[in-house]
Design goal:
Layout: E1 7-9, H1 14-24, E2 28-31, H2 37-42, E3 50-53, E4 63-66, E5 69-73, H3 78-83, H4 85-90, H5 92-97, H6 104-109, H7 112-118, H8 124-131, E6 135-139, E7 144-148, H9 149-152, E8 153-155, E9 158-159, E10 166-173, E11 178-186, E12 196-204, E13 210-218, E14 225-226, H10 228-234, H11 244-252, H12 266-290
Parallel strand pairs: 1-3, 2-3
Antiparallel strand pairs: 4-5, 5-10, 6-7, 6-10, 8-9, 11-12, 12-13, 13-14
Length: 291
């Protein structure tokens, strides 16, 4: 099928883009890489009178380190994220989840901001953002504001972005010290959205205790999840005393919006999620202790 008729706009600056969004209101939709939006339009599952193309805005491109955080422009492609050496060492989780996103053709067009603003709870980048306490820089005609990842995802495919606002960048904190990171997900085929999955980071103190732990979950509800109860259970505990299986079961439990669908029941997803967390814990702690 073909999308319904729409007017196409390609502003030259981010301020021009938000001016258009403010003028056109809810009849306008931002077009970044288009890897999620274009199929929805083509299938007539979504309709907008206006598309505002931000894919070529230079202000939304690139990766740079600023102090103890890395700023990723919202228009940076997923392929560029996967190739960036700075991200590979500063924010390993973001770099390591990238190969799980679709296929290389999709990653060549898809963008960081597009994935995050689409807010699919089974997607990889939202889980990383929630786990690492990322911050979202948002621009509008009125002003600029920052939205913490814990408040950004509000429901299935919905975010805290207001009409007329544009996501311009995402800032990820940089961990230091003895750290390990891992990604585990289960999907029917490589490139499919995960039935369930986990992204995990751990920081280990010199005495072998867990100083910090971050666990983000995919496919476990209407939004990406942060397994804070499981994190707290491991923090301050000797690595040798943390049972990966128990940690996984704790991370996967307690979610009242875990879906049941053609991919599997809610109970099946919990079992898969628990296994993914346990595997990720083993790999992350191995890296933290032995490099």
């Amino acid at each position: 099928m073909k999308p319904a008729k729409f007017a196409y706009h390609r502003p030259d600056r981010a301020t021009d883009a938000v001016a258009l969004l403010g003028k056109l209101g809810e009849n306008a939709k931002v077009l970044a890489g288009g890897q999620s939006l274009v199929p929805l339009l083509s299938l007539r599952l979504a309709y907008f009178d206006h598309l505002v193309d931000i894919s070529r805005l230079p202000e939304l491109q690139g990766v740079r380190r600023t102090g103890d955080a890395v700023r990723v422009g919202a228009g940076t492609t997923e392929a560029a994220v996967g190739r960036d050496d700075n991200l590979r060492t500063s924010v390993p989780l973001l770099s390591r989840v990238t190969p799980f996103i679709g296929h290389f053709q999709i990653r060549n067009r898809g963008t960081v901001g597009g994935s995050l603003a689409h807010a699919d709870p089974a997607a990889e980048y939202p889980a990383v953002a929630v786990a690492l306490d990322a911050e979202f820089d948002v621009l509008s005609l009125a002003d600029e504001r920052t939205i913490p990842a814990s408040e950004f995802f509000t429901g299935l495919w919905s975010t805290a972005l207001e009409p007329g606002e544009l996501l311009v960048a995402v800032r990820f904190p940089v961990w230091s010290g003895r750290c390990g990171f891992a990604v585990e997900e289960f999907a029917r085929r490589h490139g499919d959205f995960a039935i369930a999955g986990a992204v995990l980071g751990v920081q280990v103190a010199e005495d072998g205790r867990v100083r910090r732990c971050a666990i983000g979950l995919m496919g476990m509800g209407s939004t990406p999840k942060r397994a804070r109860q499981a994190e707290h259970s491991a923090t301050g505990v000797l690595l040798s005393e943390v049972d990966p299986r128990e940690l996984g079961e704790l991370a996967a439990s307690g979610w009242d919006d875990t879906p049941s669908d053609l991919q599997g029941t809610a109970d099946y997803r919990r079992k898969v999620c628990a296994s993914m967390v346990a595997r990720a814990w083993g790999r992350a702690t191995e890296e933290a202790t032995h490099g």
